[in-house]
Structure formats: C-alpha cells, structure tokens
Design brief:
single chain
C-alpha cells in the first residue's frame, strides 16, 4: 500500500527502513524520502514505526535467552 503519495513510498519500504534502524519520522524520511513533501503521511509513518518497533520487541521477548537478559 502506498503511504506517501508525494514520493510513492509503500508501507513495505517504510517497514524495511525501520527494521534497518530508523525509529523516527525524520530518520524514515532520510532513508526513503517518505514524509518529505507535504507531510500528510507522517501520522501513518509514525504508526508504522510504532508497529514495527513493537513487533521487534515482541520478537526479542519471545526468545528465551533475550527475555532472560532483559
């Protein structure tokens, strides 16, 4: 699904840059240019960031070794 229509950036591209380390709208914009034009997509970008970071936390917590270390 296209999230940033100004730059034609999909949710998959945004999720990928978050998995690579972007954790703010500004970092996502630097990595894939989503949210750099009108800014109308920034709330959707923020929601995708939250989803991916939550998903990463769940993945770490489900690993017995990582959960014991945290």
């Amino acid at each position: 699904m296209i999230v940033c229509h100004c730059r034609a950036v999909s949710d998959r591209a945004i999720r990928a840059v978050v998995r690579e380390g972007a954790s703010t709208c500004r970092e996502v914009a630097r990595a894939c240019h989503a949210g750099r034009m009108c800014g109308g997509c920034r709330p959707a970008i923020a929601a995708l960031i939250d989803e991916e970071l939550t998903r990463a936390d769940v993945a770490v917590a489900s690993d017995g070794i990582a959960a014991a270390a945290s």
